[in-house]
Amino acid sequence: MVLDYSGSPNLGSPDGFASRLETEGLVLLPGQPFAVGRDEADLVSPRWSDGRAKNISLSPGGDVRGAAEEATAERRLGRLMARYRDWAESLILEKAPRYEGSVERGRTSLRTRDVAEGAESKRKDDRRLHVDAFASQPTGGKRILRVFTNVNPQGEARLWRVGEGFEPHARRWAHRLRRPWPGEAWLLRRLGATRATRTAYDAAMLGLHDAAKLDDAYQRDAPARDLVRPAGASWIAYTDSVVHAAMRGRFMLEQTFYLPLEAMAAPETSPARILERILGRRLT
């Protein structure tokens, strides 16, 4: 389901927005709440990409990655992404004040590539329906909360495809979710393949991610609907629970946040708790 906030401005209690966001998973924002300034417009261009990284990004520590080696442009890109990060964080805390003190900053990205450009593999092809799970960066059960803005300077819309709810999606693939081998998480951390210890939850989420992306019949026949986001539009999504695919578009700003389960208004709606009910075992 999708909550169009422009049509639902009054969500009741102070936790109303957080509850609806956690339950619906995806909130569309009205109007054009974030704008690239005139002095920043030249930065929304593929010319500043180093041609190797998928995105130009800003780490929580302030490092710019994926940009062409031009110091002035790199600093300006960093300032644009930092401005977007601060705006996105203020937006989240304004609408979901219960997250204050709990939401954790992740990377900020400027995506300049067209999503139609070929991916290296089915697993990395964002045009295929999936839920987000990071192979090298386990969350341990923390939610993945993202803010997106279509900043296409030519006015082109971005097309998202939104699939079935998380619980039916998880039940569809539950039989394929293997338990990690003894010592597997330790070895992956030891070899540097993961930045933190991969929990049973992270393994299950990766299983869901890969099972959906690698199944051609599912990608062809899965229940889904298209969602067109015009240039200037912003939206908020828990991308670990919203089954989604980016089908068309170029030039987008994106901010990732992480939220612990205990900060949620409705933790029972989290992927961790739903998977635990389905699998009958503790994952986090």
Task: Give a description of the structure.
- α3 packs across α7.
- The protein has one domain: Jelly Rolls.
- The chain is of the alpha+beta class.
- β3 and β4 (64-65) form a beta hairpin.
- The two termini are 26 Å apart.
- It contains seven helices and eleven strands.
- The protein has helices at 16-24, 71-95, 166-173, 184-190, 200-214, 216-221, 271-279; strands at residues 3-4, 26-28, 56-58, 64-65, 104-111, 143-150, 158-163, 224-229, 234-238, 244-248, 252-259.
- The strands form two sheets. An eight-stranded mixed β-sheet has the order 1-2-9-6-11-5-3-4, covered by helices on one side. A three-stranded antiparallel β-sheet has the order 8-7-10, with no helix packed on it.
Short summary:
The chain is α+β, with helices and mostly antiparallel strands and 284 residues long. The chain has 7 helices and 11 strands. Helix content is 28%, strand content 20%.
List keywords for this structure.
20% strand, eight-stranded mixed beta sheet, three-stranded antiparallel beta sheet, 11 strands, 28% helix, alpha+beta, 284 residues, Jelly Rolls
